[in-house]
Design brief:
By secondary structure, the chain is of the alpha/beta class. The chain folds into 2 domains: 13-77, Chemotaxis Receptor Methyltransferase Cher, domain 1, CATH 1.10.155.10; 89-278, Rossmann fold. Helix content is 41%, strand content 19%. The chain contains 10 helices and 10 strands. The chain has helices spanning 13-27, 36-49, 55-63, 67-77, 89-105, 123-137, 153-161, 174-180, 196-199, 233-245; strands at 111-117, 143-150, 163-165, 181-183, 191-194, 202-206, 219-224, 247-255, 268-272, 275-278. The radius of gyration is 21 Å and the shape is globular. The termini are far apart. Bound molecules: S-adenosylmethionine. S-adenosylmethionine is lined by residues 27-29, 78-82, 86, 118-120, 124, 150-152, 155, 208-210, 225-227, 230, 256. Methylation of the membrane-bound methyl-accepting chemotaxis proteins (MCP) to form gamma-glutamyl methyl ester residues in MCP. GO terms for molecular function: protein-glutamate O-methyltransferase activity.
Length: 280
């Protein structure tokens, strides 16, 4: 049995395999063999936090069906890197093409619905909300609804709070800062909080993309960027085809810069840089 050297806990091949399996089955994240050190680093923190003395004890706990710990493991294993207006061409497309098309199409209910799936700490849905709020200034009587979901409960709580270091908004214009964000004072100096007008548009919820979704409405667009990149092929396909089922006719899917539907499904047509439209 191979064991890592110079580490506080023994970590066998079999234990690594079992953790990989549990993570893949719970959230679809496919860990390559090169991720062993990453898994050791993140899981050993959980072993320590629980006061256990080995990975074997930790796995025994998961095998007994400890759901709360499974959630902690998922939170520990997700990669939450994100930023405001990341991949800015998507936001230009929203403003210049997508939203004008929507107001042509939705004459009846006048609500534009967007799902940010895998929203991490909230920068993505709040960026969408900024663009929608600005656009709707010129379209009174219209409403925007953004549903922002993630499997990581801890990061979702941060997203809901909507508090960010000032530094994370360095590329956001002064005008947007003034209109949509509140500057912290006293102990919150150097931080900003997302203002009410954006918070009212965005609704957060914990959703695991690889488990069945309970959704009744359809969306005009889904942003699922830099999420399926971590999934194996079967889960990628399951998730993007699920989006197609929940998109309105001609609904759009925005993927991350290194993600593609090529060879995965024929339910979409590529219409821009990592922008897809559902085939009707
Ligand atoms: C790298 S972040 C991307 C954030 C944002 N979409 C962006 O592009 O900046 C990936 C997010 O996907 C979430 N995620 C991973 N597996 C998931 C799953 N099975 N269901 C829902 N969210 C998941 C992670 O928790 C993480 O917050």
């Amino acid at each position: 049995m191979k064991q890592s050297s110079a580490k506080q806990y023994a970590f066998s091949d079999a234990e690594y395999e079992e953790l990989r399996r549990i993570i893949e089955q719970s959230v679809g994240i496919a860990l390559a063999s090169g991720k062993r050190d990453l898994v050791y680093g993140r899981v050993s923190r959980r072993v320590r936090a629980l006061g256990l003395s080995s990975f074997a004890e930790y796995l025994a706990r998961l095998r007994k069906g400890d759901q709360a710990e499974l959630e902690e493991l998922v939170n520990a294993m997700t990669t939450n890197v994100t930023q405001f207006f990341r991949e800015s061409h998507h936001f230009d497309y929203l403003r210049e093409t997508f939203l004008p098309e929507m107001v042509q199409r939705h004459q009846r209910d006048r609500v534009i619905r967007i799902w940010s799936a895998g929203c991490s700490s909230g920068e993505e849905p709040y960026s969408i909300a900024v663009v929608m709020a600005e656009f709707l200034d010129a379209h009174p009587g219209w409403r925007a609804e953004i549903w922002a979901t993630d499997v990581d409960g801890a990061i979702l709580r941060q997203a809901e709070e909507g508090v960010y270091p000032m530094e994370s908004l360095k590329d956001v214009s002064q005008e947007r800062l003034r209109r949509f964000f509140l500057r912290g004072k006293g102990v919150n100096e150097g931080k900003v909080r997302v203002g009410k007008s954006l918070r009212e548009i965005v609704q957060f919820q914990r959703v695991n993309l690889i488990q069945p979704w309970r959704i009744r409405q359809s969306f005009d667009a889904v942003f699922c960027r830099n999420v399926i990149i971590y999934f194996d092929r079967a889960h990628k396909k399951q998730v993007v085809e699920g989006f197609a089922d929940h998109l309105a006719p001609k609904g759009h899917l925005f993927l991350g810069h290194s993600e593609s539907l090529h060879g995965l499904t024929d339910r979409y047509q590529l219409i821009g840089k990592t922008i897809y439209r559902r085939r009707d």
